[in-house]
């Protein structure tokens, strides 16, 4: 297994993928930090937040410390897709599986690398977001809450979210195998799908007077990820329920992708 993992790391380092991902993480995290600072300023200052619902300083701190989660998890998912589909895009899949006939071991190696890269992306966003958040909260004369158990838990669960999204991407790549198709479907589902479903279910809930339909988006991957990293959960759903839901998506995607890869012709 160590040989397989080293081989997968070499594949990552020998392409432009790693530095393109790094540039994306740095850029999107910087944008997220700036946006969350602006939002936090409006929420903390009575003169600027007219008509804005009251938000606890603890939630503002958590939001700042986990800045970059949305696009960061998206990049982790894309990496998971690419680490598998690159084999078919560059036509190296046959050589890879001939060198290691037990396909489950190959997928296991890719899975470990995908998880580690997901955690690395989370580490980068945290290193950028936490000092920025501390500085902003100090400038607003607000408690930083960095010693708060719920805030620290949210930061840790944020790292878990990145790892799970990377696993989800790997499963999606194994399921579809087409790099372009998998990336497009993944991006559309994450960027647009959640919003479209939420609007559609909201209209149905209003028309049929079924309020429970408004809760369905919370159990989709993006909704579960948000709930998992919110202090105490959100929308009446505990954080651990969101964590289990997101973990379930990652496990199901990985298992289905593994089973399909073991049976499918690689040519």
UniProtKB/TrEMBL annotation:
This is ABC transporter permease. It comes from Actinocatenispora sera. It comes from the Bacteria. Keywords: Membrane, Transmembrane, Transmembrane helix. The chain crosses the membrane at residues 16-38, 70-90, 111-137, 157-176, 183-208, 237-260.
């Amino acid at each position: 297994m160590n040989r397989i993992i080293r081989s997968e790391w070499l594949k990552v380092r020998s392409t432009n993928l790693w530095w393109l991902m790094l540039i994306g993480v740095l850029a999107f995290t910087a944008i997220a930090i700036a946006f969350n600072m602006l939002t936090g300023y409006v929420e903390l200052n009575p003169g600027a937040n007219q008509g804005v619902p009251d938000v606890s300083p603890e939630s503002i701190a958590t939001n700042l410390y986990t800045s970059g989660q949305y696009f960061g998890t998206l990049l982790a998912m894309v990496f998971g897709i690419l680490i598998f589909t690159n084999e078919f895009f560059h036509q190296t899949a046959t050589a890879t599986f001939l060198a290691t006939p037990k396909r489950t071991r190959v997928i296991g190696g890719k899975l470990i690398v995908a998880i580690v890269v997901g955690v690395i992306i989370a580490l980068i966003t945290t290193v950028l977001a936490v000092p920025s958040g501390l500085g902003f909260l100090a400038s607003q004369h607000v408690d930083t809450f960095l010693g708060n158990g719920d805030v620290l838990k949210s930061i840790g669960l944020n790292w878990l979210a990145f790892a799970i999204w990377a696993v989800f991407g790997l499963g999606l790549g194994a399921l579809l195998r087409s790099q372009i198709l998998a990336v497009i479907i993944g991006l559309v589902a994450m960027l647009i799908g959640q919003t479209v479903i939420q609007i559609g279910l909201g209209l149905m809930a209003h028309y049929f007077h079924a309020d429970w339909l408004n809760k369905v988006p919370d159990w989709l991957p993006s909704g579960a990820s948000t709930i998992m990293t919110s202090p105490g959960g959100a929308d009446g759903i505990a954080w651990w329920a969101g964590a289990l839901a997101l973990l379930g998506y990652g496990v199901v995607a990985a298992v289905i992708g593994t089973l399909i890869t073991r049976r499918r012709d690689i040519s």
